[in-house]
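Figure 3 (text version): structure tokens given as input.
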């Protein structure tokens, strides 16, 4: 294929030459930059012939519009700079500047964000690193740590944060990779990994408790996946912007305990303000709010394990939180298929309404309805057993303290 261009035949680089080239690339990436940081959106080494190497880079300043990054990844320059600056500030406060390269040697490769949880995959003097920030916390992986590799591979995990975020490395010899999770209660998921062509770093927001989640990684070209060892400890994981919330009232205590016990991880869970609390037949449903984010958390008996209970957290995945009302999807408690006794299940209906609402009436059709108290723009009621039917709507009427209607409309059951 090179004949038309007059190039010599393609030959493999000797190992020592390849090593020197890679070291030179990393050294160049680690050089000090001026105070006006520039971002490497992509870097690739193209081997044209023995001794002929071209290094291409696309450099951008932080911008409101995320620049294009290879493999479908994104690099939000503003988010990257803000998060990395915050991680560096936490390093300084913790007195750990001697354990990581200077801030000017941090190069972001791509970013990801979900529900206020932001992560930057970066390199620090050429070493892979992950910086995670939420509204109240900062977590930074240790760039000097050895990743927890899968047996016989160079695929491993470098960070498994308290929010369930996984940051790791794909084996350089793999074209594709999958990350699997399995929780203590048997919930499983699989993620097709999109990784940096520069550093082979990947990020997955699993939202499950690291202490109760087993990670596996696999190459689709090979039949079986391998179990990953626990990730090394982060360099730091701190609450740098505390936002205390009530945990002494009945609803506050239930919310705090429920979010702490649930396998599902809610970023900034300790800062959610308690909302309405619903209790009946050994079941609990409580809601909480942090800004425009809302969560519902449930507790029910751990079926098959007498005396134990199980907590589940249900985040608000609304695409548009500007709508006046929306439902928070919560599963049936005491379901027979989960081990509950027949006839004793209860289904909660949880929703968000305007914050001015004080009381809510929910019409389930057939002349049945349920009344509830709205707290901080949230309410939860039990669905009448004879009226529970998927795929139908219910009518919600919310009133303020003087009886005025602040919302009236239909929401899906």
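Below: residues designed for each position.
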């Amino acid at each position: 294929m090179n004949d038309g261009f007059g190039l010599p035949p393609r030959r493999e680089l000797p190992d020592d030459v390849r090593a020197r080239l890679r070291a030179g690339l990393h050294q160049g990436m680690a050089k000090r930059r001026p105070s006006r940081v520039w971002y490497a959106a992509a870097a690739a080494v193209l081997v044209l012939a023995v001794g002929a190497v071209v290094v291409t880079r696309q450099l951008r300043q932080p911008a409101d519009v995320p620049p294009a990054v290879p493999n479908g990844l994104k690099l939000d320059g503003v988010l990257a700079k803000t998060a990395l600056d915050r991680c560096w500030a936490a390093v300084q406060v913790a007195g750990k500047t001697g354990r990581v390269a200077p801030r000017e040697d941090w190069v972001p490769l791509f970013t990801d964000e979900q529900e206020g949880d932001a992560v930057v995959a970066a390199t620090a003097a050429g070493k892979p690193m992950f910086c995670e920030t939420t509204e109240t916390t900062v977590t930074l992986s240790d760039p000097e740590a050895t990743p927890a590799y899968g047996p016989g591979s160079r695929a491993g995990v470098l960070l498994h944060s308290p929010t369930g975020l996984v940051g790791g490395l794909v084996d350089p010899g793999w074209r594709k990779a999958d990350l699997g999770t399995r929780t203590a209660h048997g919930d499983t998921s699989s993620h097709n990994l999109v990784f940096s062509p520069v550093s082979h770093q990947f990020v997955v927001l699993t939202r499950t408790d690291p202490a109760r989640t087993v990670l596996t990684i696999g190459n689709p070209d090979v039949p079986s996946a391998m179990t990953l060892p626990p990730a090394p400890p982060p360099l730091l994981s701190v609450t740098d912007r505390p936002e205390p919330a009530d945990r002494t009232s009945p609803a506050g205590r239930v919310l705090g305990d429920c979010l702490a016990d649930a396998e599902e991880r809610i970023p900034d869970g300790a800062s959610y303000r308690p909302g309405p609390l619903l209790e009946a037949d050994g079941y609990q449903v409580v809601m909480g709010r942090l800004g425009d984010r809302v969560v519902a958390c449930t507790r029910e008996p751990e079926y098959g394990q007498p005396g134990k209970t199980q907590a589940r957290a249900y985040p608000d995945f609304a695409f548009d939180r500007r709508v006046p009302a929306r439902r928070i999807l919560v599963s049936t408690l005491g379901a027979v298929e989960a081990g509950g006794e027949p006839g004793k299940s209860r289904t909660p209906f949880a929703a968000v309404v305007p914050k001015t609402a004080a009381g809510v009436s929910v019409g389930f059709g057939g002349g049945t309805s349920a009344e509830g108290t709205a707290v901080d723009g949230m309410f939860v009621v039990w669905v009448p057993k004879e009226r529970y039917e998927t795929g139908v709507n219910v009518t919600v009427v919310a009133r303020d303290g003087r009886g005025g209607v602040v919302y009236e409309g239909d929401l899906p059951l």
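The CA atoms of residues 14 and 50 lie 9 Å apart.
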